[in-house]
Amino acid sequence: MKKQWYYLKYIGKEITEHKAVLWFWLLVRVVVQTALPFLQLLLSANVIQWLLEGVAIEYYLLKLALWLGIICVLEVIKSLLELYFDKENDIFRMTVMAKINQLLYKLDYPLIISEEGQENFDKAGNLVASPAQLFGRITQEFSRLFTAFLGMVMYIGLIAQVDKLYLVLIVLLVIGLLIFKRLQKRLAPQISAAVSVNNKRNSYIRRLYGDLRLAKDIRLYQMANWFSEIKASITQDYYQLMQPKKKLMLAENTFLSVGIILLTIFAYIQSVRLIANQELVVSEFVVHVGAITLLAGTITEFVNQIATLDQDLLQMKYYDEFMNQTPIFNHGEGVSLPTEAITVELRNVSYTYPNQNTPTIHDMSVVIQAGEKLAVVGENGAGKTTLIKLICGLLQPDEGEILINGQPQAAYNIHEYYQLFSTVFQDSFLLTYTIRDTIIQGLPFDAARYAAVLEQSGVQRMLSKFADGDQTPIVRQVNSEAVQLSGGQLQKVKLAQALYKDAPILILDEPTAALDPIAEDEIYQDYLRFSDNKLSLFISHRLSSTRFCDRIIYLAGGEITEVGTHAELMAAKENYYRLYEAQAYYYRENIEHEVVEEEEEVIEVGGLI
Ligand SMILES: Nc1ncnc2c1ncn2[C@@H]1O[C@H](COP(=O)(O)OP(=O)(O)OP(=O)(O)O)[C@@H](O)[C@H]1O
């Protein structure tokens, strides 16, 4: 209960921060919604009373018109308020959605990549996903709850004057309903845990259906029937899981119906007895019986709304947990960014991913000197990308520290720290609508720099193939005319983006993996030029490319096992030598067999790939 109060205050605060005047209109709405059925009931009673009293017809019509006029005005106000709240609910939901998204973009990377972080975001995101979700309907729920409460108090007050026994019956009815709600609540965690697993399976399958990248496999492996079977079993499981809840709801509805019938029977018997004793006039009888009917409705609504709100408030936990995560990095004041050439030092750095048992980077120490071009090589999964993420400040070492010009990473404000890096990662890439927008990425436009990076990255030559040049749209989801860039073309755009940022540290993770040999060679020729005056890190599986670097580190199992120049490592005849020889062997084989040109692989691109 304490939690619910906390979340109730929390959501109340969110509404107040968004628009405090909503509370005033909510109050007006509650009063109008409560008054309308009551006024209609009073009108029925009055009409009978006037007829019985035999009031003059003009007077009767005047009174009737007055009452109907008031009811009409209130109906109009009610409709206007409904429209107002429909609109305001949506604005409120969108505002909270923007808050969640804004935080997501700024949230420290480790908080996002962990499974827990992803789940937190999904759960918080679900609360604003549609008008039917918590933030889309909360003011409606408050309005229903308060209206039901006010109505209940009013009708109980009315009929309790007639007979106190009503109070006992009503209390019993409410207690019974609350017990049912409690039973439902107790059942809810089991069901929702099982349903959540079922939903995950369902949405995963739905995503697979629509994933264009899988369309090839689905057809060639003839998976359609298999998919349909999985889908059918998920649906069947869902109905099975919901069975206990449905049974309980049936029992609750039966209890409620029986309770209301008993209450109504009692009301009629009472009324007839009172009329017979001339303790009740006919118009009072109408109010009395009508109040019982309205009361039954308000009790049901009140108990339902309490249960819904109770569930909703518990869901606020997801929002609270997402919005109030403790930052990992320094978001406050930091030391100034270095203006002189940059040196990076790793001191006994270890890092283990949250869901892993063994460290991906283990006790690593290395100094990367100002202006140095360092190649990082090693087998798949050796920890190369992780090392780079640590240096970039996307991950934080569990042990040891990373120093930039002698200052520990944590001394810098994290957002300023990111200004030090121009990166090209191998896996994901954000495309904006055109090639030009993608390269500039919201930075101020500098014509000379832009022209230079188009040239250096090889994008300039690529543009000649497109009629719209650098204004060529590249996101198919938003423009059906968009060009679908090949893997190699995309890699050139990525490189251009990194070069345009022109940060003092350049990090390239497999920048030429999708390039044809000629484009790759051109990039290498240019590499020395565009990495001039920068500290650069270069990950590549093509060991021939490391010859452009001053020094090479070889990673195995998260540790540096070899360091030196290409010549030194070849002379050492360790792993680097073996890997190099293995590749060289195939190159020689290829040359002998005159295997020509690799084809650029076309890959699906979207907003985010
Ligand atoms: N987000 C993550 N959560 C858990 N483990 C991860 C995560 N990212 C990477 N790993 C694991 O860390 C190890 C090192 O991954 P990393 O990507 O750094 O290797 P790599 O040397 O760059 O590999 P490759 O040459 O294949 O790109 C792998 O075993 C990988 O499964």
Automatic annotation (TrEMBL):
GO terms for cellular component: plasma membrane. It comes from Fundicoccus ignavus. PROSITE patterns: ABC_TRANSPORTER_1 (PS00211), ABC_TRANSPORTER_2 (PS50893). It comes from the Bacteria. GO terms for molecular function: ATP binding; ATP hydrolysis activity; ATPase-coupled lipid transmembrane transporter activity. The keyword Transmembrane applies. This is ATP-binding cassette domain-containing protein. It is found in: Cell membrane. The keyword Transmembrane helix applies. Keywords: ATP-binding, Membrane, Nucleotide-binding, Transmembrane, Transmembrane helix.
